[in-house]
Structures are given as structure tokens and as C-alpha cells.
Design goal:
CATH architecture: Alpha-Beta Complex
Shape: globular
Strand content: 25-35%
CATH class: Alpha Beta
Number of strands: 8
Number of domains: 1
Order of helices and strands: HEHEEHEHEEEHE
Distance between the termini: 38 Å
CATH topology: YbaK protein
Radius of gyration: 15 Å
CATH superfamily: YbaK/aminoacyl-tRNA synthetase-associated domain
Largest sheet: 8 strands, mixed
Structural class: alpha/beta
Number of helices: 5
Length: about 170
């Protein structure tokens, strides 16, 4: 059973209804747009980041968003700026490899070492689309399903508005 299959079974076991579509593997947003077909909803971009004090963050936003890491660091209170977390840290903390980063991987962070930060755009959409720990699938969650997923995973998200200069929580 793959990590993706295990995740989908976890969602089903916890009464979280999702729709998952199989497609060729995608490695970039542009490839995803070309190969995934017509899947409605907000498609996510996920950044696994760390600050200068080795605090880790998973920032999830719209796939088309341009991210200013300096502004993001200010908004989330990062110490010493932000950089991308290593693939070793990604595997250790979220149980995944680069290319399969997803908000759904937060279920593996049982020690809550990674702070989950979501762009407010996710709260304002009806459907959130993300990889189910595989770049060969896209899983769609309604807002209700996403909220339930966070609750089952025992996680709270911090929402920020990247379009505003002042921090939001």
C-alpha cells in the first residue's frame, strides 16, 4: 500500500469525504495545470520552510500565488528569515519527499513540530485541491472536509492574508 493509499484510507476511516483523480506525475505548477485535467477548486502550492532558529512551517497557498518570503516571515513571526527546509527534515517531520508536499502530510507530524500556516484564500474557497502524498493524484476536499481533516489530525491552522501588510491570525 502506498503512502497515498494509506492517507486515503485514513480519510475514509475518519468520515472525511474526498474526490481523488489519478493523472500523470506532475512536478511543477505548470505541468499540473497541463496534465491534471479540469478539476474545479483552488489548487494548492505548498512550501516547507524553516527560519534561522530551526522552526519549521508548512505554508499553503493558491498555486498561482507569488510568495514574498520576507513578507511571509514577518507575518508568521519567523526568526532570522525563511529558507526552504531540507528534504531530510521534510521526510523526518512530514513523512514525505519533495514533489509530494501537501497540507495532508500534516497528519504525520504527531509532535506538532511544523507550524501550519494557510493563506486566507483557502478559507474563502469552496473546494481545496491538493496532492494526497503523491504527485500522480489530486484530492479535492470541501471546506467541511478540510476542517474535519484538521480536527482529526489535531491541528489548528494560522490563516494569514498575503495581500495585506499587517499580520492576521
Amino acid at each position: 500500500m502506498t503512502a497515498s493509499d494509506t492517507l486515503l484510507a485514513y480519510l475514509k476511516r475518519n468520515g472525511i469525504e474526498v474526490l481523488t483523480v489519478q493523472h500523470p506525475p506532475v512536478y511543477t505548477v505548470e505541468e499540473s495545470k497541463t496534465l491534471r485535467g479540469d478539476i474545479p477548486g483552488l489548487h494548492t502550492k505548498n512550501l516547507f520552510l524553516r527560519d534561522g532558529k530551526k522552526n519549521y512551517y508548512l505554508f499553503v497557498t493558491d498555486e498561482d500565488a507569488t510568495i514574498n518570503l520576507r513578507l511571509l516571515a514577518r507575518k508568521i513571526g519567523a526568526k532570522g528569515g525563511l529558507s526552504f527546509g531540507s528534504s531530510d527534515a521534510l521526510l523526518e517531520m512530514l513523512g514525505i519527499l519533495p514533489g509530494a508536499v501537501s497540507v495532508l502530510a500534516i497528519m504525520h507530524d504527531e509532535q506538532c513540530r511544523v507550524k501550519l500556516v494557510l493563506d486566507r484564500r483557502l478559507a474563502n474557497t469552496t473546494t481545496i485541491d491538493c496532492h494526497p502524498l503523491s504527485n500522480e493524484r489530486t484530492t479535492s476536499l470541501s471546506q467541511e472536509a478540510f476542517t474535519r481533516f484538521l480536527a482529526v489530525a489535531g491541528r489548528e491552522a494560522v490563516y494569514i492574508d498575503m495581500d495585506e501588510e499587517t499580520p492576521q491570525s
